[in-house]
Amino acid sequence: MSDTPKGKKCLKVKCLLSGVESVMSGDRLTKKIEEFGSVEEVETTYVHRRAIRLLKKGYSVENIRKLLKVDDQALPIIDEDKYDRIYNLYCKRTMLNHTNIPDLSTLIYEKSDPKVVEFIAKI
Description:
By secondary structure, this protein is mainly α. It contains 7 helices and 2 strands; from the N terminus they run E-E-H-H-H-H-H-H-H. It has helices at residues 26-36, 39-45, 49-56, 61-67, 80-90, 95-98, 114-122; strands at 10-14, 21-25.
């Protein structure tokens, strides 16, 4: 498989945690390939959004599979390295990671209460 979606109109992927199969095509496929780096990486680390929600809430792989009523015999065993990779891909993205706020004082309205300004300056 190539690292670009050219010649590939759609991709069928299976969630590592739940076994749910999804089909990606068009802009979504292009976005996922850019995000993950290659088609192979998308195929080997894809996690369905229901499983992502549970992962973000702190559930373990085993508990996610129990909650989604999945036969885990048919799914791969997720070792610690794979779990860390999945967690970093899906759960470490926050708004603060993508914003550039030099310091908290830039968020304060100029005519704020002086006590509030003093408090924030101490933080």
